[in-house]
Amino acid sequence: MGISNRVHEQMGRGSWIRQMFEAGIALRQRLGEERVFDLSLGNPVVEPPQEFRAELLRLAQHPVPGMHRYMPNAGYPETRAAVARQLAAETGLPYQASDVVMTCGAGGGLNVVLRAIMDPGDEVIVLAPYFVEYLFYVENHGGVPVVVDCDEAFNPDLAILERSITKRTRAVLLNSPNNPTGVVYSAKLLDSLAELLRRKAHQHGKAIYILSDEPYRKLVYDGLKYPFVQHRYTPTVVATSHSKDLALPGERIGYVAVNPELPDRGELVDAIVFCNRVLGFVNAPALMQHLVRSLQGVTVDVADYQRKRDFLYARLVGMGYQMTKPQGAFYMFPKSPMPDDRAFVERLLNHNVLVVPGVGFGKPGYFRISYCLDDRVLEGALDGFRAVARELGLTS
Amino acid sequence: MGISNRVHEQMGRGSWIRQMFEAGIALRQRLGEERVFDLSLGNPVVEPPQEFRAELLRLAQHPVPGMHRYMPNAGYPETRAAVARQLAAETGLPYQASDVVMTCGAGGGLNVVLRAIMDPGDEVIVLAPYFVEYLFYVENHGGVPVVVDCDEAFNPDLAILERSITKRTRAVLLNSPNNPTGVVYSAKLLDSLAELLRRKAHQHGKAIYILSDEPYRKLVYDGLKYPFVQHRYTPTVVATSHSKDLALPGERIGYVAVNPELPDRGELVDAIVFCNRVLGFVNAPALMQHLVRSLQGVTVDVADYQRKRDFLYARLVGMGYQMTKPQGAFYMFPKSPMPDDRAFVERLLNHNVLVVPGVGFGKPGYFRISYCLDDRVLEGALDGFRAVARELGLTS
Prior knowledge:
2 copies of one chain form a homodimer.
Chain A: H1 5-13, H2 16-31, E1 37-38, H3 50-61, H4 77-91, E2 100-103, H5 105-117, E3 123-128, H6 133-140, E4 144-149, H7 158-164, E5 169-175, H8 187-204, E6 209-213, E7 236-241, E8 254-258, H9 265-278, H10 286-293, H11 302-319, E9 331-332, H12 341-349, E10 353-354, E11 356-357, E12 367-370, H13 375-391
Parallel strand pairs in A: 1-10, 3-4, 3-5, 5-6, 6-7
Antiparallel strand pairs in A: 2-8, 7-8, 9-12, 11-12
Helix pairs in contact in A: 4-10, 5-6, 5-9, 11-13
C-alpha cells in the first residue's frame, strides 16, 4: 500500500462533518446555490468585523518592514502581550505575554499542547458528544482518547468521569460553549469537576490537566456571563482561535494560554513553543498576528447569532423537534426523530437540507445543525424540516 | 513532571539555529542593532516582491466575500490549479490541481506527507548535514530517522546510502538546493540515486518514496538549470513553500505536489489531505492562498542573492576560509578553522558575529553562514571573520 496503514484505518472512520460539506458542494453544483440549504459546517458566513477590514487595509497601504518574516516561534511579543491584556481583563487573572503562545488556530494549539504534555499511552478524557477531531488529536501523539458520555442535558456525568480516570489520565478536554450541543458549562459544574480532578490527581500523585477548547467563548447568549474554568482549576491550559469571534476560520490564527497561577508554567510554555516549532507549524501566520493584535476587544455581532438561534429554535420546536436550548456557539443538537440518525439525515437531504448525524459526534440518535448562516438559508431549510416532520408525524 | 518525557528529551537536543537566533536577539538588545552581525537564521531581510504587495493591497481594497472562510482541506481549487500550471510549465510534467495540496509551509507539508506514508517504526533516510527539524518531523509520527553522511562535496554517498536501506525504509528525504551547504544535486547524481532506489524497492517488494524538500528551488545561480527529481523517479512527492521565493517565511504558505505520473496518487493525495486536517493544520492560511495564486511565476531578485554569495565567498576565501562554492539557496557551509566548531562559533561571537555550528546540522567541523541579509550586515561581519582568521593564523 502507498499509504500508512494507521492513516488508512483512521480515514475509514472519516468525518461526517466533512462528508456533508463535500456533499453540499456537489449538491450546489447540481442544483445551484439557491436551492441547497447547508447547515452542516461551522463555517461562518458573516464577514470579519469592520475593524479587521480597516486594519488589513491600513497594513496593506503602510506595510511594516519585515512583517512577513519569521518571528520567535511563540509569536510576536506585542501580539502575545495584547492577548494577555485581554485575557487579564476578561478573567481578572494576571496573564502575561509569557503565558501565551500564538498558534495556527485552536486545532494547531490543541495539538501542540497535547504533544507537550503526553507520553505514548497517556489517556485523555473526551466528553461525548464530541468534536470528532479530538480523537485524532489525541491519537496523533500516541495518546488514548477515553470517551465519557454526557448526561441528558449534555453536561459531563461526573460519576462516569470519575470511574474513567486512571493512573494514565493526563488531561480532560473541555469545550464550552460546546460543539455540537451549544451547552455552556455552569460555574457549579466546573467547581465540582475541579474538585474531582484535584482529588484524583492527588490520589494518583500525578497532575491532570484541563485542556479547555474555547473558540466559542465570546459567543454566549441571554446575557450569560462565561464561567471560566481556570479560576477553579490551576493546571488549566486554554486553547482558542479567532475563527469564530472574528470570523477568520480559514486564516488559522489562535493561541494557547497557560494559567498564570500555575507554578511550573515556564517549563510547560517552553515545551508548547518547542512543539509548535517541531510539529511543523513553526509559528502562527505572521500577517494575522499583526492584525489580531489590535482586535482583541472586537467580536462579531453576537446579538445576530442569538437572533438566528431564537428564530430557528422556535420554528423547530414548533414543528415538534426536541432539543436542549443552546446557550452559546452556533449549533443545535436536536434529538433525531428517527431512531437511526443517519437515516433521518438522508431523509432531510432529500429535501436539500444538510445537517450532520449525531454518530459523527459519538452520539447516535441526535443531529447537529449549524446556524452561522444567512437568514435565507435558515428560512429556506424550514420547508425541509417541516416536510420531514410531517412525514414522521411529529407534533409539537 | 508537567511535560512529556519524550518532548523533554527532544528539547535537550535543542536547535542550534534557534539558540543562535535567540542569542542574536539578546546581543542586539545589549549592543544595539548596528553592532551585531547575525548570519545565523534563514530569515530573508528582503521584502516580498512588488507584485505581492500590489495584490495584497488590491484584496484589502476589494475583499472577495468569504475570503477568510474555511475551504476544502486541500486548499482553494483555483490556487491548486495555479500551482499545478506553474509546476507543469517548469517541469513539463502533466501536473493537475488534484495533484497539489496547499499546506502551512514546507514544514507543515513534510509533516503531513510523512504522516500519510509512515507507520510506526518505518525508517526515513536523512542526509547529513541536515536541516535539524527533519529528525523531529520523522519522529513526530513514530518514524526512525536514519542518518547517512554525505561525501566531501556534500553529495549523498550512494554506497553508504545503499547499505542503510532496510525493509523498513519508507522514504529518502532530499533537499536541493541544500540547507546548510548550498549544494544543488546534479542530474547525474539524481539518475544514479533513482536507479538505486528502484533496485532496492524491487528487492524489498515495497515502495520507497523520495520526499523532495524544495523551498530554495528557484534560488539557483550561475544560470544553472534546476534538475528535477520527479522526472527520474516516479514515487516522488515535492514539498515546498513561498517562504524564500516570495520572502514570506512567517506566513506559512506552501504546498506538496504528488508526481502526476504516480499510478495510485489519488489514494496518496487523499491521505495527505486527511493528515493536513487531523494534524490540526486544517488548511493553509486562506488569505495567503488567495495571494500566491496569481504570483506563481514571481520570484524575489535571485541576481541579488547571487551577488551577495559572490561578495561573501570571495572575501572569506580570501581570508583563508575553506568551502565548497554554493550553487543555490542562501547558505554557505565552510570548514571550521578550529577542530571544535562550537569553540569557533564562540570565538566569532566575541566579535559580535553569529553563525551556526555544524554540529547543529549533524556535521561537526563546519559552520553555516546565512547570507539572506542586508549588505551592511554582510560587510560588517567581515571584520569579525578577518579578526578570527588572524587569531588562528589562517592564510589564503
